Amino acid sequence: MKKALILLTVLILTSCNAYKDIPVDNLSLGMSTEQVQAIVKKTMVQVSMSLDEDSEKQVFQVQKRIVRGSIARQQRYNLYFIDNKLVKYEKDSEKFSF
Q1: Quick one: which of 52, 55, 63, 71 is 20 to 30 A from 4 by CA?
Q2: Which one of 3.90.79.10, 3.30.1450.10, 3.50.50.60, 3.20.20.370 gives the CATH number of domain 2-97?
Q3: How many Å apart are CA 63 and CA 75, to the nearest integer?
Q4: pLDDT, tens digit, for every residue of 70-92?
């Protein structure tokens, strides 16, 4: 009985970790791309870049697919950087599928 309870506890704790959203609440403006990457722990895909005379502007996109039972949810955020510093982030989309 004790082994079954321990196994059930381990399964519950590990399965809850898979449902976590992208942790944008932990982001702060002014962070570098490396610091943001360490927090979001997902691949950041560069979708735009422009060079001006005095600055470099980049937009990255990060997404995560979250599955709960038969419902899948996909989150996508845009992360805006100027000279390798985070200046803005916003939710691009959130899609559900059944």
Answers
A1: 71
A2: 3.30.1450.10
A3: 5
A4: 788 888 899 999 999 999 998 88
